[in-house]
TrEMBL record:
CDD domains: SDR_e1. Residues 703-724 are annotated as: Disordered. Keywords: Amino-acid biosynthesis, Ligase, Lysine biosynthesis, NADP, Oxidoreductase, Phosphopantetheine, Phosphoprotein. Residues 868-945 form the Carrier domain. One of its GO terms (molecular function) is ligase activity. It comes from the Eukaryota. InterPro entries: AA_adenyl_dom, ACP-like_sf, AMP-bd_C, AMP-bd_C_sf, AMP-binding_CS, AMP-dep_synth/lig_dom, ANL_N_sf, Condensation_dom. NCBIfam families: AA-adenyl-dom, alpha_am_amid, Thioester-redct. Its cofactor is pantetheine 4'-phosphate. This is Alpha-aminoadipate reductase. Catalyzes the activation of alpha-aminoadipate by ATP-dependent adenylation and the reduction of activated alpha-aminoadipate by NADPH. The activated alpha-aminoadipate is bound to the phosphopantheinyl group of the enzyme itself before it is reduced to (S)-2-amino-6-oxohexanoate. Its EC number is 1.2.1.31, 1.2.1.95.
Length: 1408
């Protein structure tokens, strides 16, 4: 029984908080992404355990005795112990928390320590102790004796679970939406001890992933007839995973029964069912499958196709120039590489000597690489961008005997040259290698002659050096824990082995166009070069400007017709950042080098809709990417990506490659179990140059101790050591998915990857610890506000009184001499002491999260005096830096280096983009590298602005263009889920000069007389009806329409065309001079009309109807701002120039699409027209709704200052109630057409506010006709008859269409499947809306329309029930060819003769 403890007793609560402090949240492996907020769709799976498992449970139950007792252990406790073992193996956690049943209604919170060294019997004893004591066990306790002394205390402290939950998770506003507090994610219940109260009190289903119920099976079997029922969330887990889990539970029990004292780490989770899905570690991997040397295959291609284009290099040109190219044939590249090879051989280079290439990204690198390989030597690339000290370290490891300097790479730094002279024994040096445009090869002059001159005569002669699979051809570097990089010796086997398989798998041909985008000093550059050379395809090489300029790389790839590219995720982000140009030719994009996110893939799919995205896994030591996951294009399988988690899996091994996930006991892991990833392949690197560490990382396969046999083919291969069944220990942790693919879960050591670069944290700490003023230090990877990885070094200074700012500068400069630039931490955090764990290690979890705004690399504030000296451009630039770097602007000295403050290449791209956006000049990318200071960049910007004298940007409301841009609350458009503070723009734009002050007293115009109306948006669907209504309602009125067009005549013809298409136009209007069209543009100053016309309009116009807008449901606020918001501002200015004019602003009910107004509608019935719109100050998601909200608020403020103005809010506008003429480019009708094409309609009960267009136009006209509506202000266009989506879709079968009514989820899935076949689906342009959450996004509040009814009193303007018009609307859509004619029987469709005039002239939306 629970003790009746008052809820307010703080002592009891405090004791429980202590016992359950720092609970470890179990993160179970899922199959699908975990949605936020959590969604739950429950399913269940039952298992009646086998007789073998029943025998095992009985044996364990009888064989294990609780300490000090002769009573047997219950089968439930044995099963619970097996489940805890399973959770430990799934998560790697040593602190496992499970909810369980008890004899009281209170559930147990079971917290159990568990390690791989524990035996199964020890786990059972732990379970028994925890269950009997119901108390927290210290994680690091060496035994569990301390349970007994607290048992009585725990019993006395029993409190209701709800009270415990409230104490552990006190209510807070900081919770994420949908947050459900939980002390555990899994529950394990004995059904005989479980009551409905227990289930209800533990947790909601939305906060618990899996619940297991143990009960007696309904069977005649007498031996432990146990049934296991698993209730799980199908949003997270597949049925196959639950099947595997139940199989593994039985395997654990049967294994434990054979040896109860076996450590659980040695218990295998492999099941018979899963063996066929996982790799067999004894299988033959074609160890002698050498495809030939890349040099021989390349030479063969050159002989077969000498004139075929091999390499196309873009020239460095200023501006957007892509056609300045250097093209080289296979013959030219082959001959040039032969010359290099002969030169090296003639000067003493021997087999596998290292030749260092001081390089750049270009065709000369291809020539140099192939030349070194043809000489039988080993090439290693050094990037001139590395600090000289770092270059010397690489040279010290490589110990090269040859040096080839590419001419365009520049000259060696003096320090590097000195090191070479003093420490290395170089046999041969090519001082300035360069292939000229005509294919002539130059090597640089020495003593007045080109060094390659004696070898040119041998350009047609292959060197003939024989290469075999074990010949070493490459030397690449990877980080070393000692601070010295390791040189990885790559074998020729891998340089060609995978290409035949890739050619078949990815349908490669000699027509492919590849790119060279990898870092030149990193091993992926090899695949960039060798893949096209093997295939006989083309290699296309961009300039640095092409790669780095925001948006330009996509344009470059499109121009060159690139079909295949190799990228790191960081390079992929650079490609997609700010890019808008599609790349339709791209068919395959291979990613390797870092984790690939769903967001990375979706951005690339947007640019390259036809590309397969292939996520690959590999390391320098595996020489090549060795696994792959193919992600199909979105237009082929749009649902694929949505079913993936945020991080893409590594996939499965390529042909003759296995990813073996092995646990700490050396066993192959089962599905879901965490272990280290070993790569088993015949293509592994030879090892580390001169290091014994090779034996630790390249290990013999323990699953195949006898090794593979020698074959006849292998015996004939030259330079081959025979078959070696080896595995490379990657240090990466991973687990098998149910289908046998592998997902990575972290690192087994402290090695990380940031922006594609592999970094050893220990290397950083080794160098940092050598700084004389640093006592302790540790480096971690954190994520900044943009979720990008950032290196953070925590350190304790030797002298606590040391000036921290200068010390951090000194540390940074010190590390720059020791490390590559990408390995220098971005943030340094000084500490008074390091937090320690109980066992004396640094407690990394306790390290404070670095707020870069508080702990920037150089946080010294700039003085007020220095601030005052800054120019306006310098101040703006510093603000942009602060935004990009996420540090306070006042801590940025104008002479500090961008990269020293935490910048890197991706941030540099963002910086350039922000500068271009802010200053409206084409800032070159290299500005960040050539002048990486605020002062330097400001000078460049001012120079560029001085050159562009014709540039004009609109000023608004007295603000300069720069001020408007600076105060706009819009972030980088590449970040899709940024929240735009659109409301903040209201104060920026509001112009207090828009007022009645200083103008003649307002008199309502004589609209029945010869009034002049000014109308915007006249060519749009609603606009043309408003035009017609005004002219028909006011017989003597004139309408001046503002219309976009190439000329006044073109603009006028657009109005006529719109009128005719909608069966509205009357030629008499022209003859009577009642229609005038003015060419203009809503997005321009003064609506795009000249000063003279603006003046005339301000004097002649009596009434303004502002209906024009850019209607777009995807564009963000800032893209709609000019056309929608600024046009409203200029309209208000027109209304307050010369004399006051009534303004009637046609808005949209989208300004009410917030949760606030949904709740108002549900509680109060309707949203009133008198509402102040503050309920939408936040929460509007569409840019269109946001732009209308700001516009409306501007109108409201103008009304407060005496400007006569009204707001009309239409909802969905449908066809004319008499003629049926409608808008085919409309969401609702696209929905209808899409459903007909699909043959299915979704169940959606939301009300649709559908009003005929003639009613909405009539409402606008009646509001403008009288003075009374000016005092009412806002008018809702509301369909007073309840009409739902179900009614709309129900009209289809009623009129003969064959459609099946189905649940929304099923309909959405079917729609996605249809798009696999065609993009010609009516809903294809709107898939982003339909496939997100249509039932939610189409829900809107009910609206009060009392003002509208009052305005229309005495007129014939009435809203007709659209349910009575469906036969008319569907008839029109069929007659004009938008919808197919129904094939089934149903109500007849209306057909009007007048529709003949509009056939072939489909109606579209225009902003006017």
């Amino acid at each position: 029984m629970a003790v009746d403890i008052p809820e307010s007793d703080p002592a009891v609560v405090a004791r429980w908080q202590t016992r359950l402090a720092s609970l470890t949240e179990l993160i179970l492996p899922t199959d699908y992404p975990r949605p936020i907020p959590q969604r739950v769709v429950e399913a269940e799976q039952k298992l009646e355990i086998s007789e073998a498992t029943s025998l095992a449970i009985m044996k364990l139950s009888l064989g294990i005795k609780p300490a000090g007792s002769a009573v047997s252990v219950s089968p439930f406790s044995v099963l619970l112990a097996a489940f805890v073992v399973l959770l430990h193996k799934y998560t790697g956690e040593e602190d496992v928390v499970v909810g369980s049943s008890s004899r009281s209604s209170n559930p147990l919170v079971l917290r159990m320590p568990i390690t791989n060294e524990d035996t199964f019997e020890q786990v059972v004893q732990t379970v028994l102790k925890v269950v009997s004591c119901f108390v927290h066990i210290p994680r690091f306790s060496p035994d569990i004796d301390n349970f007994e002394k607290t048992e009585g205390e725990a019993s006395a402290d029993e409190i209701p679970f709800a009270q415990l939950l409230s104490a552990m998770f006190p209510p807070t506003e900081a919770r994420e939406p949908g947050f459900q507090p939980s002390l555990f994610k899994v529950r394990f219940f004995d059904l005989t001890d479980t009551t409905p109260d227990t289930l209800a009190s533990t947790t909601t289903s939305s906060s618990c992933d899996v619940t297991i119920f143990i009960s007696q099976a309904n069977t005649l079997r007498r031996l432990l007839p146990i049934e296991i029922r698993v209730v799980f969330n199908t949003v997270l887990f597949s049925n196959n995973r639950i099947t595997d889990m139940l199989d593994q539970l039985q395997v654990i029990l049967e294994s434990a029964a054979t040896d109860v004292n076996k450590p659980i780490g040695q218990v295998s989770l492999l099941t018979e069912n899963s063996r066929s899905r996982l790799p067999d570690p004894t299988a033959d991997l074609e160890w002698d499958g050498f495809k030939g040397a890349i040099t021989d295959i390349f030479a063969s291609n050159a002989r077969a196709h000498p004139d075929r284009t091999c390499v196309v290099e873009s020239k460095d040109m200023s501006g957007q120039v892509f056609d300045a190219l250097r093209e080289f044939t296979y013959k030219q590249i082959n001959e040039a590489s032969n010359i290099v090879a002969h030169h090296l051989l003639r000067n003493g280079i021997e087999r596998e000597d290292v030749v260092v290439l001081y390089s750049y990204r270009g065709v000369d690198l291809v020539v140099a690489v192939m030349g070194v390989l043809k000489a039988g030597a080993t090439f290693s690339v050094i990037d001139p961008a590395y600090p000289p000290a770092r270059q010397n370290i690489y040279l010290s490891v490589a110990k090269p005997r040859g040096l080839v300097v590419l001419s365009k790479a520049g000259v060696l730094h003096d320090d590097v040259r000195s090191y070479i002279t003093e420490n290395l024994h170089i046999k041969v040096e090519v001082p300035a290698l360069e292939i000229l445009d005509d294919g002539t090869l130059k090597g640089g002059d020495v003593n007045g002659a080109d060094v390659l001159l004696p070898d040119i005569e041998k350009k047609d002669v292959e060197p003939g050096v024989v290469l075999g699979p074990d010949s070493v051809g490459t030397l690449s570097f990877t980080s070393g824990s000692t601070g010295i990089p390791k040189g990885v010796q790559g074998r020729h086997f891998s340089l060609t082995h995978f290409f035949p398989w890739m050619r078949e798998e990815f349908e490669f041909t000699e027509q492919e166009r590849f790119t060279m985008l990898s870092g030149i000093a990193h091993d992926p550059i090899q695949r960039d070069i060798f893949t096209p050379l093997f295939l006989g395809a083309q290699l296309r090489i961009p300039t640095s400007e092409d790669i780095g300029s925001p948006g330009r790389l996509a344009e470059w790839m499109a121009y060159h017709g690139v079909t295949v590219t190799h990228l790191t995720p960081a390079m992929g982000q650079l490609l997609s950042a700010n890019a808008t140009h599609p790349i339709p030719t791209l068919r395959n994009a291979f990613f390797v080098g870092d984790v690939l996110t769903k967001r990375d893939v979706s951005r690339l799919q947007y640019l390259a809709p036809n590309t397969n995205t292939i996520n690959m896994y590999g390391t320098t030591e595996t020489q090549r990417a060795v696994s792959y996951l193919k992600i199909p294009p979105a237009n082929i399988n749009p649902s694929f990506l949505s079913q993936q988690k945020d991080i893409m899996p590594a996939g499965k091994g390529m042909k003759n490659v296995q990813l073996l996930v092995i646990n700490k006991s050396g066993l192959l892991c089962g599905v879901g179990e965490v272990g280290e990833i070993y790569v088993r392949s015949g293509g592994l690197a030879e090892g580390y140059l001169g290091l014994d560490e090779s034996k630790l990382k390249f290990v013999s396969n323990p699953f195949n101790p006898s090794g593979p046999p020698q074959t006849k083919k292998g015996a004939s291969l030259p330079h081959y050591k025979g078959p070696r069944d080896r595995m490379y220990r990657s240090g990466d942790l991973g687990r098998y998915l149910p289908d046998g693919a592998v997902e990575c879960t972290g690192r087994a050591d402290d090695q990380v990857k940031i922006r594609g670069f592999r970094i050893e944290l220990k290397e950083i700490d080794t160098h940092l610890s050598q700084h004389p003023k640093v006592r302790e230090n540790v480096t971690l990877v954190r994520r900044d506000k943009d979720e990008e990885k950032v290196l953070v070094s925590y350190f304790v200074p030797v002298d606590a009184s040391e000036d921290v700012n200068s010390l951090i500068r000194d540390i940074r400069d010190f590390l720059k001499l020791k490390l590559a630039s990408y390995a220098v931490p971005a943030v340094f955090v000084p500490l008074t002491r390091m937090p320690l764990t109980p066992n004396g290690k640094v407690d990394k979890n306790a390290l404070p999260f670095p707020d870069t705004a508080l702990a920037p690399p150089a946080p010294a504030s700039v003085s007020t005096e220095e601030n005052e000296k800054l120019t306006p451009v310098q101040k703006s630039l510093r603000d942009i830096w602060a935004t990009v770097l996420n540090i306070p602007a006042n801590t940025i000295p104008i002479d500090d280096n961008f990269f020293d403050l935490g910048g890197h290449s991706i941030l540099a791209t963002r910086l350039v983009f922000e500068m271009r956006k802010h200053f409206a000049v084409e800032v070159p990318l290299n500005i960040v590298y050539s002048t990486p200071t605020v002062a330097g960049m400001a000078g460049v910007v001012e120079g560029l602005r001085g050159e562009d004298l014709n540039l004009r940007r609109p000023s608004v409301a007295g603000l300069s263009a720069d001020e408007v841009a600076k105060r706009m609350m819009v972030k980088d458009t590449a970040v899709e889920d940024d929240v735009v503070d659109y409301a903040a723009d209201l104060d920026v734009l509001d112009d207090t000069s828009i007022s009645k002050d200083g103008l003649p007293e307002f008199k309502f115009p004589d609209v029945e007389g010869k009034a002049t109306f000014f109308l915007t948006g006249a060519t749009g669907f609603l606009g043309i009806f408003i035009l017609a209504k005004l002219l028909k309602r006011f017989k003597n009125a004139k309408v001046i329409a503002l219309v976009r067009g190439k000329s006044d005549e073109d603009a006028f013809s657009r109005v006529v065309d719109a009128g005719e298409r909608h069966l509205l136009w009357e030629e008499a209007w022209v003859a009577e001079g009642r229609v005038e069209v003015v060419k203009g543009d809503l997005a321009s100053d003064k609506l795009g009309v000249g000063e003279e016309i603006w003046k005339r309009l301000s004097e002649e116009v009596d009434v303004i109807v502002h209906n024009g807008a850019l209607v777009h449901w995807v564009y963000p606020y800032h893209k709609l701002r000019s056309a929608n918001v600024l046009s409203t501002l200029w309209t208000l200015k027109l209304a307050t120039t010369h004399h006051l004019k009534p303004v009637h602003f046609v808005s949209s009910t989208s300004v009410l699409d917030t949760e606030h107004y949904i709740k108002v509608s549900e509680t109060s019935g309707k949203v009133l027209e008198t509402d102040d719109l503050e309920g939408a100050r936040k929460g509007l998601e569409s840019g269109y709704g946001q732009s209308k909200w700001v516009s409306e608020k501007l109108v409201m403020r103008a009304r407060e200052r005496g400007v006569p103005a009204t707001i009309i809010r239409p909802g969905y506008i449908v066809g004319d109630s008499s003629t049926g003429v409608g808008n085919t480019d409309d969401f609702l009708w696209r929905m209808v057409k899409g459903c007909i094409q699909l043959g299915k309609v979704p169940r959606i009960t939301n009300v649709i506010n559908m009003c005929p267009v003639d009613y909405v136009a009539g409402l606008v006209t009646e509001v403008a006709a009288k003075e009374g509506p000016l005092s009412l202000g806002v008018f809702h266009s509301w369909h007073p008859y309840s009409f739902r989506f179900d009614d709309l879709f129900g009209a289809l079968p009623a009129h003969g269409y064959t459609v099946e009514r189905t649940d929304y989820i099923a309909w959405r899935t079917a729609l996605m499947d249809l798009t696999l076949k065609t993009s010609d689906h009516a809903l294809f342009p709107l898939l982003h809306m339909v496939l997100s959450d249509l039932p939610t996004s189409t829900k809107s509040p009910a609206l009060d329309d009392a003002h509208a009814i009052q305005a229309c009193e005495g007129s014939d303007v009435k809203c007709v029930d659209v349910a009575t018009l469906m036969c008319l609307y569907l008839g029109y859509m069929v007659d004009v060819g938008f919808l197919d004619k129904p094939e089934g029987e149903g109500k007849p469709l209306v057909r009007l003769e007048s529709w003949e005039a509009v056939k072939g002239r489909m109606v579209g939306r225009s902003r006017g």
